Amino acid sequence: MNGGSIDTRTAEITNLLRAWGSGDEAALARLTEHVYPELRLMARRYMKNEAQGNSLQATALVHEVYLRLVDVTNVEWQARAQFFAVAAQMMRRILVDAARTRGSRRRDGIPPKVNLDESAILSPAAERSILALDEALTAFSQMAPRQAKVVELRYFGGLTEEEIEAALKISPRTIRRDWDFAKSWLMRELNHTIGKPSGH
Amino acid sequence: MTPERFRQIEELYHAAREATAGERAALLAQTDPELRRELESLFAQRTGDEFLERPAVRNAPELLEDVTVAAVAAGTCLGPYRIESKLGEGGMGEVYRAVDTRLGRAVAIKTTREQFSARFEREARAISALNHPNVCTLHDVGPNYLVMELVEGETLAARLKDGPLPIQAVLLYGSQIAAALVEAHGKGIIHRDLKPGNIMVGKSGVKVLDFGLARMGQDETVTASQMIVGTPAYMAPEQREGKPADDRTDIYAFGCVLYEMLTGARVGPQRRRIRPRKLERIVNRCLEEDPGRRWQSAAKLQQELAAVSPVRRKAYMAASAAAVLALAAATGYFSLHRPPKLTVKDKIVLADFENKTGDPVFDQTLRQGLTVQLEQSPFLTLVSDQQIQQVLRFMNRPPETLLTPEVSREICERTGSTAVLEGSIKGLGSQYVLWLRARNCRTGEVLAEQQEQTEGKEKVLKALSGIAIQIRTRLGESLATIQEHSTPLEQATTSSLEALKAYSAAKVALYAHGGPAAIPHLQQAIAIDPQFAMAHADLGFMSWNMGQTDLGAEQVRIAYGLRDRVSDRERRYILMLYDRQVTGNLQKELQTLESWAQTYPRDAYAPGIIAGWVAYGTGQYERGIQASEEAIRLDPSIPFPYESIAIHNLRLDRFTQAADALQRAAERNMEQPDFLVIRYYLAFLKGDQAGMEREVARAPGQHAQDLMSHHQALVLARSGRMREARTMWERAIPLARQANKRETAGIYEAAAAVCEAHFGNRAAAKERALAALELAKGRDVEYAAAYALALSGDLPASQRLAADLEKRFPEDTPVQFEYLPTLRALSALAHRAPLDAVERLQRAVPYDFAMPGTAFVGMFGGVYPAYVRGEAYLVAGRGQEAAAEFQKVLNHRGIVLADPVGALAHLQLGRAYAVSGDRPRAKSAYQDFLALWKDADPDIPVLKQASAEYAKL
Hints:
Largest sheet of chain B: 6 strands, antiparallel
Oligomer: heterodimer
Shape of chain A: globular
Strand content of chain A: under 5%
Radius of gyration of chain B: 32 Å
Number of helices of chain A: 8
Largest sheet of chain A: 2 strands, antiparallel
Number of helices of chain B: 44
Structural class of chain B: alpha+beta
Helix content of chain A: 55-70%
Number of strands of chain A: 2
Strand order of the largest sheet of chain A: 1-2
Distance between the termini of chain B: 66 Å
Shape of chain B: globular
Mean pLDDT of chain A: 75
Largest interface: A-B, 53 and 49 residues
Low-confidence stretches of chain A: 51-55, 193-200
Distance between the termini of chain A: 51 Å
């Protein structure tokens, strides 16, 4: 940002991020305590502004939080990937909670459109689809946790293949296969097509 | 579902995905039925637009479909590529012609027998960064196939079978091949197998194929003796011995190619003499046994060839570019071991120049000038102003925010860009110092830094051009592309700082408030510098889009006259506009745009324009959708493509998808004023009266009110409620005139005239037609007026107008293929020659479902050629053929919209069935019409006729 002094909170958060990157698991919990409220606050603010036509993509919000809380010049690329991974998870939680609070429910009938190739949108119009996706993703993660994680990171966090590789420590080929399979599975679930697995 | 079951499904899924079609079928046949159903339902998800891979927000296309096949056949799909035919067998495998279904673009696909090594896949990335007119571009790479540019033409080898080439051709081709080598070597890629069989000779010059592919199957562990690749006849001595190759190896091969072009024979122990001697020296030095004695770089070779060549360099290459080249050569910039600073996939954010001179003429101006200069480069990608606006909005900053280095860094971070370009200008007496620096916005590393001093304010723009070239070089752009795309600012754009300042203000106004706000600034720029081609072009473009076609054409003509001064990119823009707005030749416009997209593959502008009028006007709606998606992929912050997706879907009768597209745009804060009209018609097509009223109520401001009144008039006219329709037009027309939109008012009058004419109100139709012509003489007004006049019995007047159209618009697509055939057919009908009428409408058949110009603003006139054809068949007593034509009108509601022929077609259909003797169907059609017209004015002639005819059935 500017060349002046970084405030103490930013320094602290940056240190936590680096500590976590070096393997300090406890740092993650403290990091979450800082990041989650910030992210939720901003999400609320943006969703309130929606009436003025200011809806935006979830990944943009994650970026904003990152810029606010972290001293970007002092952080390695892998730690950055891990931050985004965690933020993606939080983002998902926040969107789902917001939708539920507003009383949106997944109704039967024509399923809402979800485009997994783009990123999650913060807006009341998109809420039904978020809930539908969340439900499908949760169910999916019970059988395929790693694949579900890939979807979460990409759709809610906008992570690139390299960042996912750094965050989850899996190969690009695995990421691509997981993404491919997950998309087919989730789209099928969301479209209520025939072939629903028995006992589901 | 048990975990084992899930595992099974997943494994089978991946196995099936990676198998050939035959293997897949075998695999599925062996599995139990339920499992097979699972797999099939999963594969069923893989079709449809949503699944065409689009990179996510900031992503590079890494997450492409991972489809592996060992054999393909015509008709199958390889990811997004549809195989069309086999072109031949290559050394590595087979070559197919295919179509990239996302872009509608033909490509060549080379399949190979083995999988590529991981190393090759990495190299492929570098190879795909080669973007040069003389290099066959590598578009895409799969596990064992390559997708390349499809090059039409013959190989040099084939050409040389007929003997040696004339010296002019040799020098031309030689310089082009050398240019390709310069490009590749500059990026660290060696061909290793250069030969006439790998060089294609096409209409626009030479293309070198298969750069760096000779090594693709090789593994690092292979021993030296096994590493011999290449074709023996063209192999350099060191290659034959299995020693590692470098760029001089390619130079040897190049020498062989030159020799063969000149003599028709391969290099052998006895060498023939070559004239001129200069050329012989060049060839001999290429063919030195010792690499150290050859030409040491392709660039040097290129220079030497140029000295022999009578081909003139581009006359307007700036002197500073030549100086930079000399400097770069002297400092050994061509060393292969220096990694390029940027790749074509990197984006740059341009910050505002810090103005330390105190002279306000430099505010904003230098950034605009530098933008124009850098936009010439097919190598660099600037983050667009629209995207910057969008990011600023999100940052809660106003659109006029100064782009300081700090703000730019943040924008850089948020858009996933790589570098920020910041600069300043300061004054020292009469001297000015320009400074420019490129920094990686994540790491802060300085990528390039340049300074330039100049005497006198008038020289500043020239210095800016010079500094732009230097920065482009330092950032890694190949000298060949810089040479080709470097028109200096003061020549290409303007030499006046004040005019440039006005132009920058126009851009700012455009992004903040839209087209109309930019116009006064553009007018000012032109007033200061009447030779400012781009200002004229932009003014023409914006005026035309607002419905002022004559004015728009005028401005573009001026720009066209100045087109030889401007840069390559701007020239393409002007050519496109010329076809779009002056000649109206849409096919030519399409060609210009396709060539533009090819040369500047990361430019979102060209696909965006393809998605617009040119696609509507030729009826290529699917193509329009693809182009829109491509534009969005390249730059998601430009609003228009979202709107065009909606419109194309509307024309294809895909109403849900049209509504979805509007929703998608609204969600991204891209709502446009025109959405109102689209929503209005979507409601109309659904029969949603309340929805229509809602959109009307939303119309903000005068501009929309005249438009909405006109559309309401059409809807009313369609139901025969002419009195109410006339009232609406009495609102629309004066409002348009008051806003000084004479041509728009003319279109409204003409629409009213056409409706009156259709309904048999001859006197009213004539009056309206003449009133329309009083207001404007644009192409669409004339046509509509001529149509109305023909129907209302004034044939001579109609024919005069048709002759005028023909004279003024000899190449215009709607005029030649829709308007004139329709008018001439009406004339034939009036002379009781219906089969002549059909004959005259033959031309229009491919354009039956294209959008005529009257549909652009006026939303009427669609499918008229088919309607009139139907009328002709009816008069000729051919009921079945007539019915088919009228059915066309009824089957394309998304094109006809509220034009009255949409209702009249039912009546005509009834008549057609009556003529064929099909009473029940005829009755039903008449009933449909009468139901639609239940509230119509009773005194309308066509209604009275219809009722009478129905009674007799």
